[in-house]
Amino acid sequence: MKTININIKRIGIVAALSAFTLTGCSEYLDQEPQDTVTEAVYFETAEQFEFAANNCYTAMGFDYGDDSSDLSGNIGDTYGAGETVTPTSDDIWDDNYTRLRYPNQLIEKAVDYPGEQSEIAASVATAYFFRAWHHTILLKRFGGVPIVTRSLDVVSEELYAPRNSRYEVLAQIFSDLDVAIADLPSQNGLSASDKGKITLEAAKSFKAKMLLYAATWDKYVGTATDGDGTSVGAGSTKPADYPSVDAMLQEAKALALEVMNSGAYQLWDHREELGNRNLYYLFNLEDGGSNPAGLSKADNNEYIIQTTYDFTLRQIRQNLTHAKGLTPNRKLMDMFLCEDGLPVQHSAVFEGYQEMTSEYQNRDYRLTSLTRTPLVQYWGWGSNVDGGGAQYEAGFENSGIDYDYRYVPNLIDPGAGRNIGYSGVKFTTEYKLRETREESYNYPYLRYAEVLLTYAEATVELGGGTISDADLDMSINKLRERANVAPLSNALIAPYSDLNMLGEIRRERAIELFGENHRFDDLKRWGIAEEELGHAITLNYVDGTEYETAEDPKNPGSLIYKPSGFSYGTTSSEYAVSTYSGIATTKPGSLILDIAGNRNFSLNNYVDPIPSDQIRLNPELLQNPGW
């Protein structure tokens, strides 16, 4: 594994320095000048261990996803269509094996710490958490991978070892998280300057997440992607004490409940001040200038594991607002609930699709917060983009800028870029002081909403598809209340043969976490990715609706919709878009963005190929099946 060797040589020289020359963005990531320290003398004080632990956070970035998924209107990324080429190299492989050196080194150095172990316990626990974190990223990408639990040199046997099975990797992840849980401080006891650090509750939440992931993978996928471990793949070897599916589900539920009962986190809910755009401001929260209520990051107690950004110290630098990456498609738009708690095909308050604004009426705030409604006014951002950023104190009419702030859907040309049909605005800003690439809101890897979803899903899986109203009320009904949606109950869905509790909880997960890099993992662990990703991607209903003849009010004489721009036309018949129950079918007249024939995700795609340069350098790394 020459690539890793090169990285190890480089890291061996700079490890001590990088352990404390941090590029973070809050007090606990502040840099301190260190001119002559070497690795040999660095790990001597508790403060040095803390700096080394803080360095682990620099591996976290802005990682939103779901482009090209079955819910996305953006298809530029080819992953959801089923990639078929084995890469020569892979940054996920290289970066995570590189980054494993930092927690491993800290854990090793702790053995020789001259003071009391209690002084460095939290730092060591943080290192164990991040060792689990990097193995998790590798596992989800490649399946079984070589486990690395020590800092390596150029002759270390791990560099030429075969892959561990996914079950051995998961066992290591669970073990490391148990060590972290034992010594991490509670969120409830953190000082203001330490907010954002990994806590006891964060490690419990992450372990609950991974237990649910492992249990459902075992239940719905099993060993189908493992290979035999002799000629192909990592094999299916399980440690003797590897937990059963039920045991993992039970522990996931119990850990989620412990976090729920801890009082350490709470859902962001400022509907009184922010109305139906409440959730929009959760995902672009900076200081008081980023929202009309003057709220800041200090008001967000929902993010459990997050990347912390800062306008001065660490901007995201990904051009998020300009790209507007998280655009929903027809399937997702119809998955959002109506105010009565029912999906569009059953709701008495759904107003259909005839007018451009019809499908936005009486709907889930997660739709109206994070997707623009046609002809409603919205601020641009920065000094002049789309009229410039928000002037909350003045309002649109008194902004002093000659600009029509109304949103007009783009139905002219799918080749024109993103935001075709619908305009998603999750992780975008309307801040007047943020120009392109200057966004600085935090990114959530795991937030309290997911803990509630984990509790509900583990419960319904343990119940064989059943869950009590009491368990619903203490978990996902809190999300539905925030979304201005009636609570889910057994009585609510009983009259509808196509609705069941497992399907409704999966629906909640899809709409709550869209764009937060969960969808592909969820589809794969449920064993339905090839079916869900195999359908055509469609957008607005245009045939026979207002879209067909509506003029663009911002461009008189021009129509909003140009049929000739869409070579695939519109759907001609009704068809199902999901393998699990309760998801509305797509009917004739929906604009086709991509046909089913272009979407070829298969079981092989559940795990990505090992990069060819790694196999060339270490022939013991057997390729995944089908690659």
UniProtKB/TrEMBL annotation:
Indicate the segments forming the SusD-like N-terminal domain, all copies. Answer: 84-210
> What broad class describes the main subcellular location of this protein?
membrane
- Entry's InterPro entries? SusD-like_N (IPR033985), SusD_RagB_dom (IPR012944), TPR-like_helical_dom_sf (IPR011990)
For whether the record's keyword set contains Membrane, the answer is yes
Q: Which UniProt keywords apply?
A: Cell outer membrane, Membrane, Signal
The residue ranges of the RagB/SusD domain are: 319-627
Q: Where in the cell is it found?
A: Cell outer membrane
Signal peptide, first to last residue: none
Q: Which residues form a coiled coil?
A: none
Under Gene3D superfamilies, the record lists: 1.25.40.390
Q: Carries keyword Lyase?
A: no
* A GO cellular-component term linked to this record: cell outer membrane
Give the record's family classification: Belongs to the SusD family.
Q: Supply the name of the protein.
A: RagB/SusD family nutrient uptake outer membrane protein
Q: Which organism is it from?
A: Formosa algae
Its lineage opens with: Bacteria, Pseudomonadati, Bacteroidota, Flavobacteriia, Flavobacteriales
